[in-house]
Amino acid sequence: MRPVAVVAQPCPDIENAQGAHTSSVVAIRVAVDLTPCPDLKRLRAPSLTAADIEKAAQLYRAGQTLAVVGQHFLVHLGTILHHLRRAGVPMRDCQGRVRS
What is the pTM of this model? Predict the structure, then answer.
């Protein structure tokens, strides 16, 4: 499973007014689910590596659903579907039959 990283940037409006450290401000915002500081840019999740895609294909061929495979890699099932289609993996219908 891939690690998830959080990168913080300074949020001067809170730091200067309250004397708080950046890591404290970010931790508080994450803990109480506040909107991020305007200066904090949303980061794109790391994409799946070739090894991740091969492992995802193995799990899917073994009978796992796209949702389960997505949970394994911490990505949406649509991301898994996209990568498996590009890799040429035959898809199943909702009854588990291979689509033609």
Answer: 0.55
